[in-house]
Amino acid sequence: MDMKQTAKEIFLAGVASVLPDKLIRSQVQLTGNILKVRDCTYDLSTIENIFVIGAGKASALMASEIENILGNRITAGHVVTKYNHGCELKYIKLSEAGHPVPDQNGLRATHAILEIARRAEEDDLVICLISGGASALLVDTPPGISLEDIIKVNEVLLKSGADIREVNAIRKHFSKVKGGQLAKAIYPAKIACLILSDVVGNPMDVIASGPTVPDTSSFMDAANIIKKYELYRQLPQSTIKYIVRGAAGIVAENPEVYDPCFKNTKNNIIGCNQTALEAASKKAVEKGFDTHIITNKLQGNYTRVADFILQTIDQHGHKKGKRPVCLLFGGEPTVQVRGNGLGGRNQHLALHLATKIHGKRDVTILCAGTDGTDGPTDVAGAVVDNHTMSKALSSGIDPDLYLENADSYAFFNQVEGHIATGSTQTNVMDLMVTLIY
């Protein structure tokens, strides 16, 4: 059995289970004039207009399936997704924009989405499609802050080592659409929000920076995070001044739980990392592995994540009997980028793990993002085994240099091991597939 290929097949089974068209089809049904979204029903005979808006790496495919269900009942719509993540839409306009760093296309698309949101009135229904990536794709510029400033903020945050909760707490306070403010723009219309989670624990105020969810963070929280990661000198002065003014109460906080704009809002998580893990587990069992889902909550610095994976391998390795073992992990590690190389958190984690399992036992480890992209690269991640380092060293390649320069992409280009899926049009964080044999 080719263990690297087997690990990839297990990973892809997980990805297939969270394709947004499949998830929406299972949770949104139209019978006559009755639209059922999870446990909520909407009598469309009482609805004047149906608007569809959304953002994220999965939003195009989500919108396509909503079109299949509602067809020409849709009055107007607009969604924004990452470049090369789009698909053909008939009733809903589609924009592609920059991710993970925002750009002008994202700014234009966000303005168009807000225009539709503000059109909605009391007898209208707004279907909001949200998935991972929306924090960068839904981009606007508060007073006194330029798009270039917002771009710089995102670039600094991506390299800071901050986790997604911390990153989005800051992003929410440089926006008039995130942190529940999209819901405020839509009010008093009804909102049915369908969310594909890419955050550990599925906190709806963090996923995509919570555009339709009450904000549990504050300007002071954002200021403390900036201080924690020593970002004051790295961020544009305009953004620092804005945060200071917010912390002083001069700029209004985002809407909180008792704001009336949430009265008609129903937020629904339709898929998450656990969904993918369960499907991956089913595939591993079919292939004859003694399979264990270890956690869907991996987060924090990649070295700590690697230590946990290695400890779990040690715990299960000695129990291996007649069947090989498959250990499944989900989550999203972080990397504080110090070099000027090219890579992503999954490739970096895989390379680090390869140095730790070198020559120890028969182990294969795959680390990949369910969206098909890892950092600013064209691959989802990488797969390594206990022979990866031997291959590198025999070719005169020093893995430590690539780790220090955050250049894991170049390492795997030479040694092989990249997992290339292309855009999957979904996003539920990362999967780590470990095979012990």
CATH architecture type of the largest domain? 3-Layer(aba) Sandwich
Share of β-strand residues: 15-25%
Specify the helix fraction band.
25-40%
Number of strands: 15
Instruction: Give the domain tally.
Output: 2
CATH superfamily of the largest domain: Glycerate kinase, MOFRL-like N-terminal domain
Q: Might you state the CATH topology name of the largest domain? A: Rossmann fold
State the low-pLDDT regions, or none: none
Structure description:
It is a single chain. With 437 residues, the chain is of the alpha/beta class. The chain has two domains: 19-140 and 175-218 and 253-271, Glycerate kinase, MOFRL-like N-terminal domain (Rossmann fold, 3-Layer(aba) Sandwich), CATH 3.40.50; 274-436, glycerate kinase, domain 1, CATH 3.40.1480.10. The protein has 16 helices and 15 strands. The protein is globular and about 65 Å long.
Outline the fold blueprint.
Elements: H1 3-17, H2 20-27, E1 28-31, E2 34-37, E3 40-43, E4 50-55, H3 59-70, E5 76-82, E6 93-97, H4 104-119, E7 125-131, H5 134-137, H6 147-160, H7 164-171, H8 181-186, E8 190-196, H9 219-228, H10 237-247, E9 265-271, H11 273-286, E10 290-301, H12 302-317, E11 325-334, H13 345-357, E12 363-369, E13 381-385, H14 388-394, H15 399-404, H16 408-415, E14 418-419, E15 430-436
Parallel strand pairs: 4-5, 4-7, 5-6, 7-8, 8-9, 10-11
Antiparallel strand pairs: 1-2, 2-3, 11-15, 12-13, 12-15, 13-14
